[in-house]
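This section describes the prediction task in plain terms. A model, or a person checking by hand, is given the sequence of a single protein chain and must write out its three-dimensional structure as a string of tokens. No templates, partner chains or ligands are provided. The sample shown here is typical of the held-out split.
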Amino acid sequence: MNTGYADVLVGLQYGDEGKAKVVDFLAPDYDIIARFNGGPNAGHSLEHNGQKIALKQIPSGIFYPNMKLYIGSGCVLNLFKLLKEVEEVNKLDISLENRLFISGNASVIQPHHIILDGMLCANIGTTKNGIGPCYADRALRMVDDRLLNLQFADFLSDPKGTLAILKKNLQAVLEDESFRSRDASGLDAMPDLTDPDAFMVKFTAALEKVAPYITSDPLWLLRKVKNGEKVLFEGAQSTMLDVTRGSVPYVTSSNTVASQAYVGGDLPPNFHRKTVGVAKVIMSRVGNGPFISEFGGERSEEYCGGDDPSRHNQPFEQKHDTDTLLAADDEFDVGIALRMLANEYGTGTKRPRRIGRFDLVQLSHAARQNHVDVLYLNKCDLLD
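The expected answer:
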């Protein structure tokens, strides 16, 4: 039998381990790069032959012209941000036509998800992309007569009816005074969302552009693998941020471990061959939550999680001298120096990442959770 197989690549720490770099390195050995979880809440930075790009939803195999790119049903997608990514890829003279395939069962991030995220989830360090509320609506399914979880397939099979539901969901949140009274800043920052009719026009136009990439075949990936094609599943976020295995509530909204690839990636697990783990020798974490090996401890967590970007963004920190900071007795200063030297700032948010020592106990635990067969360690040069 000429069947193919699947390998799974996951981050083993708190994210930003350099997964995309390893995917780009391994990609020539595969036919398909696939995403199985998350959405536009994690940036994957790529540099290939002098070309640079940060991808949040499109899989990282764009630089290989014959590579197929698959976004599985376990993902939640922002239509507008996806289109922007496609345009950025096209600017590099890279075509995604007949290469990018999106599962029809992937959920659409709706406007009310973004509104609710900004209002309700700020204290856990959310990126305010609507990821958590979108996954929550998957579980809720319906409220009264309103369908909450809208999939791409819904828009293809019944465009008019599904768009009407989308508008109804948005209006329900906009008209709810209990939400508006809690925090209206999210609405002020997104004026398009306060006009449902204007938003629907923009959404419909965007949907028409994305429609050619959507596949209504739930067995699309299975058919490819049975025909001999090889898949590399690319995990978003990382093991320690898994929604059930991480330090709740300071986690992401989806399962991030290797086994999830065969649920959210739409492939039976019997095609699994090996698991690839990625870590880095100076650790980092974005947002709040436990970080045992952090340089500067609680002071660092508060500093990196504050709402005043003027005092902790990259240009501000670049005014410091790294040699002086590294020689300081204060571990907080050491953390700033390492962040500067390693350029540890969020790909999408530009937030400073919290920095910590290499934690072998944590790494051993994550490697066993995922049954890692191959381990890549990034940023070893930073140990100098």
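For orientation: The chain is about 35% helix and 15% strand.
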